[in-house]
Amino acid sequence: MKEYKKSKLNRVKRGQNRATYDVEKINTILDAGFLCYVGYIYEGKPITIPMAYTRRDNKIYIHGSTANRMLLSILESEETSITVMHLDGLVLARSGLHHSVNYRSVTLFGSLNKIEKDEEKTAILKWIVNQMMPNHWDSLRPMYQKELDRTLVVEFTIETASAKIRDTGVADEPEDYALPIWAGIVPIKQVAGYPISDKGKPEEMGIPQHVLDYYEQNK
Amino acid sequence: MKEYKKSKLNRVKRGQNRATYDVEKINTILDAGFLCYVGYIYEGKPITIPMAYTRRDNKIYIHGSTANRMLLSILESEETSITVMHLDGLVLARSGLHHSVNYRSVTLFGSLNKIEKDEEKTAILKWIVNQMMPNHWDSLRPMYQKELDRTLVVEFTIETASAKIRDTGVADEPEDYALPIWAGIVPIKQVAGYPISDKGKPEEMGIPQHVLDYYEQNK
Questions:
Q1: SUPFAM superfamilies from the xrefs (chains A, B) (predicted)?
Q2: Chain A partners of B182 at a C-beta cutoff of 8 Å?
Q3: In whole angstroms, what is the distance from residue B88 CA to residue B191 CA?
Q4: How many distinct helices (H) and strands (E) make up chain B?
């Protein structure tokens, strides 16, 4: 089992029984989503920006306009962290205190690097699109050079990380189990609705198989 | 229409056509969820922590253990922001550049205050539980004093805020509409599964009506 080294930065203080530093487990959580929350400091305040991402090995890639103040700021300061969370359930306990959620979350710390080469940028943008919708990129119109020129692609190398996972049932005070109070779990998940074709040619063409596959796997 | 005043902090720079400062619209987005992303600065790095919240007027309430390093840190420094985002759809365009998501997001800036009085703390914890599961609190075992004593309740007064909403179809380059490329929207939503009763008394009792109502409204 390969683990991220624990440091002052990534060591989980609250709920240590839910914590893991296991690289495989962290990668599995990262690969289950495509939206991350990127932290940056603006005017002394920590601001969180939701962004699309993709992961390859120990790298996370995000992108935006070359005028994106957040991306430029974190590239310069190298001060950021990335959080990903999947909500899996509401934990309804017998007491207020033991109410909780089931979830998988990851927090990543690392260093930043601007991707300069066009071929690398293109390859990464393909990964980002395909992380949102598998096998999708090759069906698209190729990027124009001017589009590539105004896109900033940032590589985040994970240096340390932690995950928290809660995936069990209700955990109440021992004496509360005798009370005539209902408790249980409400599972929560994110699902896809049936794809809606854009007007014009897409309506005539029909929905591509890879998009239908996504719907079937996520409905 | 009441609006938050635009300042350097909350003025949306990218995608201004999606931005709103309207108090009602911002409150509607806040009331549609119960999980927020709270930013704080630790060792010079911005870290984002997912937390349960509730809203009353221009106040957001979050809570945690009295030993929660993040809550203690933001109370002391007053440097934080809160982000809430709901993902509503994948926007699959004809080109990579115009891929996007439909969403409703809010970023809040404000001041912080620790709630000291037991009655106030209890009232707020009721709101937090009921924001996650409407009408739920009154079915629970009342809080013990010792539970209240080790719970930190923090009031965040919204001073300035912005929202971004994308809720339209695909927006491609004009010339791309002639291409034989499929484009469209995949709606995304968060849904509830059927409630799972905890072992013991809850199994005999049956699922309470308010939990069944939640399931029916969110399935």
A1: FMN-binding split barrel
A2: 139, 197-198, 201-202, 205-208, 211
A3: 12
A4: 6, 10
Give the pLDDT band (50/70/90) at residue A161: very high
Q: Could you read off the pLDDT of B175-193 as tens digits, one per residue? A: 999 999 999 999 999 999 9
Q: What is the ipTM of this complex?
A: 0.95
**pLDDT tens digits, one per residue of A101-136:** 999 999 999 999 999 999 999 999 999 999 999 999
Q: Identify which of A70, A149, A63 has the alpha carbon closest to the alpha carbon of residue B13.
A: A70
Question: What are the structure tokens assigned to A5, written together?
Answer: 């080294």
Query: ∠ CA A156-A160-A165 to the nearest 5 degrees?
Result: 105
The residues that bridge with A105 in the sheet, in sequence order, are: A85, A164
Q: What domains appear along chain A, each with residue ranges and CATH number?
A: 16-188 (2.30.110.10), 191-219 (no CATH)
Mutate to test the interface with B, among A14, A34, A71, A141 (most CBs of B within 10 A): A141
Structure token digits, residue A22: 């296991």
> Does A46 sit within 8 Å of B46, measured CB to CB?
yes
Digit-coded pLDDT (tens) for B208-218: 999 999 999 99
